[in-house]
Amino acid sequence: MNHPSPALVSQHAARRLPRWVLWTLGLLYVLPGFIGRDPWRNADLASLGVMRELAAHPGQWLHPQLLGETALGIGWLPYWLGALAIYALPWLPAHQAAQLPFMALLALTLISTWYAAYHFARQPGAQPVVFAFGGQAHPTHYARALADAALLALMACLGLALLAHQSSVDAARLAFVALGLWAYARSFHSELRLSTTLALWGLAMAGLALSGAPGIALLLLLGGECARWCGTFNPAIPSQALRGSMAGLALVPAALVYAIGWPAGWLDWPGILPHWQLGASWESLARLLLWFTWPCALLAAWTLWKWRRQWRSPHLLLPLLWLLGLLLATFVHRGSDRILLLALPALALLAAFALPTLSRSAAALIDWLAMLLFSASAIIIWIIWVAMMTGVPAEPAENVAKLLPNFVPQFEAHLFAPAAILTLAWLGVIAWRTGRHQPALWKSLVLSASGITLCWSLLLTLWLPVLNHGMGLAPTSQRVAALTPAQQCVLVHGLAHEQIAALQYHGGLRVQRISGGAADAHCPRLVVSSEAFVTLHPQINLRQWQLLREEPRLRPGRDVWLVFERRPGDPTQQ
């Protein structure tokens, strides 16, 4: 039985967002966070260290490592992309060269989400109601308008901004998940070229496998096949050949990755149940789901309710199954935001299909919430920046000085100018949205997408120096380098990959792990994490060393590095 569509869309409402607006918004979203930003702690710096070592030693391509410690646990492909860029662009700073492939991956995520929504919106079950006297939306125009809305919905997700702008495995996985969603959306159309669909799908599955997520690739294949068996069957689609080919393109790279014994120990099964027996874990997951998926989660829930009678249509069933599978994977990985990130493209697709069913009052509520939230956030960003520059208001300035005692703010015109222009543009968007214009499907998400783009851009312009200082390890690494004699090496103990990479990149130091061999005798400095000091004694004779300085990352008492110098009377130096 065919149930009536809940979507009521006129031809006027199905007009597409002007292309120059869409491209400008996309560039403003992608570029901040890459241009001018130093690599920050954790994944950013750790990946950079491995990429630089790989670019310097191409023979290690199958064994990416940092100081001899293998890095296979999070995948090959991101390292390869960054190392290739560093090797091919030696005139650029290494971190800027390494960021270029990940800018392209974020752009691929946005493009793939647009095309996935476009193909899903052209499904028969996704079409709006046909008016008795004509005037309903043309299928192609409707699909383009929905695709614009899906792209805006993805950009509006709060959880996308930080993780997708890092030079890490997460940006690669996200891009290949979105690419797989695009390929599956194409597979439901018999008139589209099968070879192109299979090429997109094969690239997505190989990319996921080489990015350390073969299990995610198999999970997506399972969700897609469930959608085919449970959904509305279209006999015009070459289902047998298509299913077999897509299954093979997912199973082969995943099987190859697992066949070589990697990633071994990628999941701590015995620790999952004890983790979720704690009430704090559920509270943390609830908070993560609430802010990370805002505002798409609410719109997706509305979609599931309004389109419930068309639940077997591919535009609803496949994104829903992928979303549920990735939510399950997030649960299995103890509420990891890096796994939840992969669910955002499917969530944005579901959110877009809520727009044809929203009443004017609901759309106005979304606009008002977005306007208030992002306007208030922008005002706070500007107030704190003014306080850093002038000392007024006093309280924000004192808070910044307390958090970052070694940071000296300076006015930088090349950062202030784009921030001022974007703020004026935001006021123009508000004026346009509150004016009287013809309805459009995507209008309810313009303020949300523009607002998150504004705030992200303000943070990465006005606050860029303070964020580089607070989120990076350059100041600490440079202070350690200043304590080290020229052309000498440094021993390290208990430092994580990102800390070692910071000493190498920002400090320009030759770093060695303690090995207990004769090579250790040539290093006059030893850097130890304060947490690992208790494990230092079995590794080295502490009578040969004296504490030179304690170097806190930001302020005393937090993330302290202990810098030791070799005693002058050390017999190993004679």
List the helices and strands and how they pair.
Layout (H helix, E strand, L loop, with lengths): L18 H12 L12 H14 L8 E2 L2 E2 L6 H12 L5 H28 L17 H18 L3 H5 L4 H19 L6 H17 L3 H17 L8 H21 L12 H5 L2 H14 L3 H11 L7 H19 L4 H4 L3 H9 L7 H31 L3 H10 L9 H22 L8 H17 L4 H8 L2 H9 L6 E5 L3 H9 L4 E4 L11 E5 L15 E8 L7 E7 L8
Parallel strand pairs: 3-4, 3-5
Antiparallel strand pairs: 1-2, 5-7, 6-7
Describe the fold and architecture.
- This is 4-amino-4-deoxy-L-arabinose transferase and related glycosyltransferase of PMT family.
- Keywords: Membrane, Transferase, Transmembrane, Transmembrane helix.
- Helices cover 58% and strands 6% of the residues.
- The strands form two sheets. A five-stranded mixed beta sheet has the order 4-3-5-7-6, with helices on one face. It has a two-stranded antiparallel ribbon with strand order 1-2.
- The chain is built from 23 helices and seven strands.
- The chain has three domains: 19-263 and 271-357, no CATH class; 374-471, no CATH class; 474-573, D-Maltodextrin-Binding Protein, domain 2, CATH 3.40.190.
- It starts with 18 loop residues before the first helix and ends in an 8-residue tail after the last strand.
- The chain has 574 residues and is mainly alpha-helical.
- α2 (43-56) packs across α3, α5 runs parallel beside α20 (443-459) and α17 crosses α18 (394-403).
Short overview:
The protein is mostly helical.
Which structural category fits the helices and strands? mainly alpha
Chain-averaged pLDDT: 86
Cα-to-Cα separation, first versus last residue: 91 Å
Quaternary structure annotation: single chain
Spatial sequence of strands, sheet with the most strands: 4-3-5-7-6
What is the string of helix and strand elements? HHEEHHHHHHHHHHHHHHHHHHHHEHEEEE
Which of globular, elongated, flat, extended, rod-shaped describes the shape? globular
Proportion of strand residues: 5-15%
Flag low-confidence runs: none
Helix content: 55-70%
Overall number of strands: 7
